[in-house]
Fold these 2 entries.
Entry 1:
Amino acid sequence: MFYRSSTSAFDMSVESFNSAEHLENARKQADERGLDKVLVVDIDAHHYETDNFKEILELIEDPVLRQSATNMFAYKGPGALLIDQPGYQDGAGRITRYMERKHEKFPADGTPREVAQTLRWMDAMSVDYACIFPTPMLFMGLHPQVEVEVGLSRAYNRWLVEKVLPANKRLRSMLYLPFNDPEATYQMVKEFGGKPGVIGFMVVSTRYKPVYDNAYMKTYALLEEMGLPLSFHASYNWNDQLISLTNRFITAHALGFTLFNAVHCANWVINGLPERFPKLKTIWIESGLAWVPWLMQRLDNDYCMRTSEAPALKRLPSDYMREMYYTSQPMEMVNNRKALEVTFEMINAETQLLYSSDYPHWDMDLPSTIWDLDFLSEQAKRNILGLNAKRLFNLDTSDRF
Amino acid sequence: MEVFVAKSSAIAEGQRVLIDHKGQKIGVLRVNGALHAFLNLCPHQGGPACEGMLIHKIEEVIDEDKRYLGMRFHDRDVHMVCPWHGWEFNVETGASAADGKHKLKRYKTIEKEGDVYVVV
Ligand code: FES
């Protein structure tokens, strides 16, 4: 792999890549902290479905869409069906694994490459179980053709459930919901809800459909009845009218990943959905944590003055938000420990926070980011790293512990 | 204690060598003609900071009317980038380009008779 730098003397060529070598220091950290003896469940990890796109396209049920996608793929690659965004996730080559991971080699022992690669980084980071999500599909909620999101997500979910999850019990997923089509969303839950390895369902929050729409109520009711959590996974839309005012990826990312989840979460609470579906667990993924205290305080303050506009609520908005679940990454921890500690208190982190790595993405967090927090008790660390997830998803961890 | 790293010729401008000393990896590199050595451990989350890209610092071009005209590479300052998340470090000081407070551990280097040593 060749990386161009600012001058040819600094251009870099890398012969080969191995996730375990890339994460050698993570392995050392895990050993130093004894993390192999601690249950670590990673609730937000990724793979690149585009690595297997041809295979996935074959599973599209609609023959017209499948035929057109197959031919488009032949000349256009994965862009055939996906909708892309401008963005610089790899930091212009600085995060070298973006390019390298595609060329990683594995022994031909019959394990799907997808699975072998995931297990390799999981072992390095001492992650026992990982909930895996797609990557380029995180923009599909912006696709102008609703039927394309439906067709591709059904194909992807089938591929995941039939080919990937059965290959190893350590891999789980909350399946992608084609939320722009409420009926297809409902059917997806109905059809895939009980499949092995499926621990819930996921809505990519980057889209323009309100969660309070009556069309979704039967899906929420079904999820509640099945005891499966509903998660909202953030991404960004640089073409969003507001976010398009930003001119750097750093800004589009910092704001975009937060705002979509904040809007859906505010709608979820103010429309009283926690009262309508008291047993449905919701999880907010990959927006960091600092937005939660901000939203809690904004909503509580307004609610006391405008209670009549949210008549379904029986408690303060923050009381409902404290019962929701949040994933940890990307945790804001650079220079204000006190703010982080207050955030942990405000979200009841000891019971509601779920460790997530987001590996292999550029802003991934290692388990040590939780383990090394000096304001947490050892029990709190164990809860956040794995026990909260075990309880929430009713995970059978007997094959590891 | 001086630890042999490599022949001088093996560390040309922009090149680097990583050595293992008692279980710790040390990266030795040559930039702008000078040798620099750092522990291969990033102060962020412990990534292999010496294994990433070398690239000149990027700066904004602002004219005398304070208007932004674009970006350019600095003509001297070079950063070493940790490949895990992209933290950048000035190769002459080892300090983080972001806040200057987080630093890579530095080692003294010695070059004599065509050989490079690091002092640990
Ligand atoms: S560990 Fe080096 S940038 Fe994060």
Entry 2:
Amino acid sequence: MIRLEHITKEFSSSDKKVIAVNDVSVHITKGEIYGIIGFSGAGKSTLVRCINLLEMPTSGKVYFGNQELTSAGEKELRLARQKMGMIFQQFNLLEQRNVLKNICYPLELAGVSKNDRIKRAKELLRLVDMEEKAKSYPSQLSGGQKQRVAIARALATNPEVLLCDEATSALDPITTRSILALLKRINEMFGVTIIIISHEMRVIEQVCDRVAVMSEGVIEEAGEVKEVFLNPKSETARRLILPDKDEAGSDAGRHSIRIAFDGQSSFEPVFATLVLESGIKLNILGANTENIGGKAFGQMLVEMPEELEKQDTVKRMLRKKGIHFVEGSDER
Amino acid sequence: MNLQMMELLADGIKETLYMTLVSTLIAYVIGIPLGVICFITDKNGICPGRIIHFVTGILINLLRSVPFLILLVAIIPLTRLIVGTTIGSTATIVPLVVAAAPYVARMVESSLKEVDAGVIEAAKSMGSSRLQIIYKVLLPEAKPSLLVGVLISMATILGYSAMAGFVGGGGLGAIAINYGYYRYQTDIMFVTVAFLVLIVQLFQELGIWVVNRIDKRSA
Ligand SMILES: Nc1ncnc2c1ncn2[C@@H]1O[C@H](COP(=O)(O)OP(=O)(O)OP(=O)(O)O)[C@@H](O)[C@H]1O
Ligand SMILES: [Mg+2]
């Protein structure tokens, strides 16, 4: 669906040159939700902005389906952009237009007649559950509501791809979760390929199929989300997944497991019953979990007991509960 | 004050309003495109163009730096060419426009600068052409600020029009000068000044009311 080939983007100001993206190649397949994660300044935004050519790469090629965008004319590029929605951290709604008219905007560009525009906009408002706010102005909406409108607007022209640049970074955890659930639903209902940029692993973990870990303009590792998060190979990925692990990891020689909560279960009962049923004392070395609506998301590093049989008991119980974990992920 | 005097003042008010409104209108017809061009050709604009940006910038600054009274005299040949005379309110419109258009252009430019770059970016990402960005995003989003600019311009142009009374312009300014300055009838001068203040105040109040009604950011 989208192929980036050896994308490099340099910014040169008067005194120095910044290489924001350095020879990145990615292939995003149709219908998947692809995450790009990295710390601030890693070049994530620059990379997605290269996809719809808001930023012209210094070198490299961008393919959208079979079309090479980097060599497309202005008109072709505009038409291609109408097939690629984009949403932003700051929502970027037109402040002087009401919700309905905001959603109509891309339809106006596409030359849809007024009646059809309004019909389609109302349809979309229903999809994002904002029907009763049709006549409101952006300044009257909460952040989550604004993002719903932005999503509806981005979907108005039935795009094949939706680019999300830190779309949930200005929202609280519960709102974030509902927006992510909406994106997932859109992906399943319409088969829209979604690219999500975030610096938070819980965002990626909740909805993405595959993920690329980015640092200093380079993709350090990429793969299935479960794979990367349970068994991170790069330093950046480790730091993103367990921010406080540096201290925890200094206890060398200890045997530990990394448990992943993906929202299937709630954290408290799982851990409590584990300790109670096994009668084994477990020590949490580090955790990056979040309880959202009673469901746990995130990762936890747990110190295992010395005795092998106790270790087996714990692992068996975790498996029985269907909780993912990786052993001895402490190696460097 | 006698009836004749009141008629004189009524005519003065009419002429002043005529000069101010028509000049503001024409100044905006010229100033909006000029301001838009200046804004979009900026190096971070939607249509960067160094030379055009530079030339429009110079033109605007040049005209703005000439004091109005000097401009008034300097462009007399142009005024005569366009209107056929250099005396009266219609003739005054020419220097008023020449003085106000660059001023308006700068105000338009600064209003457009207030539009969130993210919104322009979003419009681009949806596949808007540059022209569509200008008339569907930039101008509508800047509308409240543009209107505030109109109010300020109108007050300024009104002030200029009074100055033009010195060199044969019409309106309240001419009355104040002819009666108050040359004939020492200070009472008439005070009355005209009071009217000038009143007109500015009226524009201002009305304008603020309109702006508050149409600005959806503070709804
Ligand atoms: N227009 C620009 N001009 C100059 N440098 C830029 C520009 N845009 C980005 N950069 C630089 O490129 C690098 C990558 O920036 P980018 O915005 O892509 O990072 P990011 O991963 O999205 O970070 P964040 O999580 O903070 O949004 C940074 O060093 C930034 O300073
Ligand atoms: Mg960014």
